[in-house]
Amino acid sequence: MEFLVVGAGSLGSLLGGLLARDHGVTLVGREPHVGAVRESGLTVGGIVEAHVTPDARTDVPGDRFDCALVTAKAFDTAAAAADLAAADCDLDAALSLSNGLGNEARLADALDCAVLAGTCTYGAMLPDPGVVRCTGVGEVVLGAHDGGPSAAADRVGAAFDEAGIGTTVTTDMPRRLWEKLAVNAGINAPTALARVENGALLDGPGNDVARRAAREVASVARAEGVDLTDEAATAAVERVARATAANTSSMQQDVLADRRTEVDAILGAALDRADAHGVPVPTLRTLADLLRAWERARDLR
User: Fold this and answer.
1) Does residue 113 share a domain with residue 13?
2) pLDDT of residue 136
3) Distances in Å between the alpha carbon of 231 and those of 160, 214, 215, 228?
4) 6 and 103: one domain?
């Protein structure tokens, strides 16, 4: 298959690099990373090792692709969708692996193709231009963004499997997205604020905060009509924290680099829906307030 990876930062470069072992891949990202990939190829290191030579560029080409894999930050999804539409790409499918809620709707509004939703628990970092480090082997789960069977999801899932990426195709993506939101709220925000690795949340006070955040997300999900139990949400947080114990979460990476975080897409999305349903979420609100205060102090919002 031919894949277009839009938002080729750490996760996009890792998945694009793994896909490039068996498929055609074009990475769309920023300099100096894409320039280094054009000149010398992409080196995948860490737990998984490979050297591949995907195409790499800073703009979206107007070519034909079987799937556009959107791994941009959630606040850049609308721009990614606009760039894809403006380039008039011939796409069979678009798959969002961005954090938060609403990314798939933004893609569906802009694109005339099957839109898939996905979650990913692989860990990745960009230590140098042209180099991506796999810090944790996880799983990609994907399916139709509104649930149900999808021939496009089956094809993309099979291609991921061919490239050695652990993949599950599912028919219950709405519930999976809320479960992912619980994981992001329970892991990303606490680790970013406490400056600890994911494994620090497996016990002690960090675990208490992570579990409270996950339960609050689950309560909002149920108010939205999604069947996500407290037990399932907290189990997902602990499962991912254990599998990625040595990882620095993506939100902590943003904080360490003085970059804007995805607090609005993750915690803000839950808060907006909690307010609409009158669901109390004191832990989520505290985490969001602290992260937004950090961003404001650095003129990032």
Assistant:
1) yes
2) 85
3) 30, 9, 8, 8
4) yes
180 catalytic residue (yes or no) = yes
- Mind giving me the DSSP string for 245-295? TTPPPHHHHHHHTT---SHIIIIIHHHHHHHHHT---HHHHHHHHHHHHHH
Given 23, 73, 145, 180, the catalytic residue? 180
Are residues 150 and 36 part of one domain?
yes
From the CB of residue 243, how many other CB atoms can be counted at a distance below 10 Å? 17
Q: How far apart are CA 154 and CA 199, in angstroms?
A: 33
* Alpha-carbon separation of residue 42 from 60, 181, 279 (angstroms): 19, 30, 46
The SS3 call for residue 15 is helix
How many domains does the chain divide into? 2
Place of tokens 């089956």: 154
On the question of pLDDT at 301 being above 90, the answer is no
User: Cβ distance 46 to 134 under 8 Å?
Assistant: yes
Q: Can you give the pTM of this predicted structure? A: 0.91
Chain segment 163-201, per-residue pLDDT in tens: 999 999 999 999 999 999 999 999 999 999 999 999 999
Domain that holds residue 274: 174-297
31, 52: one domain: yes
Using the predicted structure, report yes or no on whether residue 123 has a pLDDT greater than 90. Answer: no
Residues 164 and 23 in one domain: yes
> Is the pLDDT reported for residue 110 higher than 90?
yes
Residue 85 has phi, psi (to 5 degrees) of: -65, -40
**Pairwise CA distance, residues 23 & 208, whole Å:** 43
Q: Which residues contact 73 (CB under 8 A, 6 or more apart)?
A: 7, 9, 98, 99, 260, 262, 265
Confidence of residue 16 (pLDDT cuts 50, 70, 90): very high
